[in-house]
Amino acid sequence: MNSPISCEFYDQLMVVIQRKIPSTIVYLENEQTTTIKGIVTELMMIEYEEFLMLKGGKKIHLQSIFSLNGKKHKEG
């Protein structure tokens, strides 16, 4: 699950964070595909791994994300 995150994905995340755009994120959680909606507040590093933080405190590992606002970043 350790494939590099594309620059295009980082750019999309930065726009979403700066503009406080409500976002729909599809990601893998406990071996199940999960969809969540919220506002991404920041990107953070925890023990050399990258996460995005949603308003309200939910952390999502960047490697687990399949799509952000309908744009695919990897196959599920």
Could you outline the blueprint of secondary structure elements for this entry?
Layout: H1 7-19, E1 22-29, E2 32-46, E3 49-54, E4 59-61, E5 65-68, E6 71-72
Antiparallel strand pairs: 1-2, 1-5, 2-3, 3-4, 5-6
Helix percentage: 10-25%
What is the subunit arrangement here?
A: single chain
Task: Give the overall average pLDDT.
Answer: 92
Q: Main sheet?
A: 6 strands, antiparallel
Helices, by number, come to 1
The Rg value, from CA coordinates, equals 11 Å
CATH class: Mainly Beta
Low-confidence stretches: none
Instruction: Report, as a whole number of angstroms, the end-to-end distance.
Output: 12 Å
Topology order in helix (H) and strand (E) letters = HEEEEEE
Total E-strand runs: 6
Tell me the CATH topology. SH3 type barrels
Number of domains: 1
Could you say what the CATH architecture is?
A: Roll
Shape descriptor reads globular
Structural class: alpha+beta
% residues in beta strands: over 45%
Strand order of the largest sheet: 4-3-2-1-5-6
Could you describe the 3D structure shown?
With 76 residues, the chain is of the alpha+beta class. It has a single domain (7-72), classed as Roll (SH3 type barrels), CATH 2.30.30. Helix content is 17%, strand content 50%. It has a six-stranded antiparallel beta sheet, with helices on one face. Strand 5 and strand 6 form a beta hairpin.
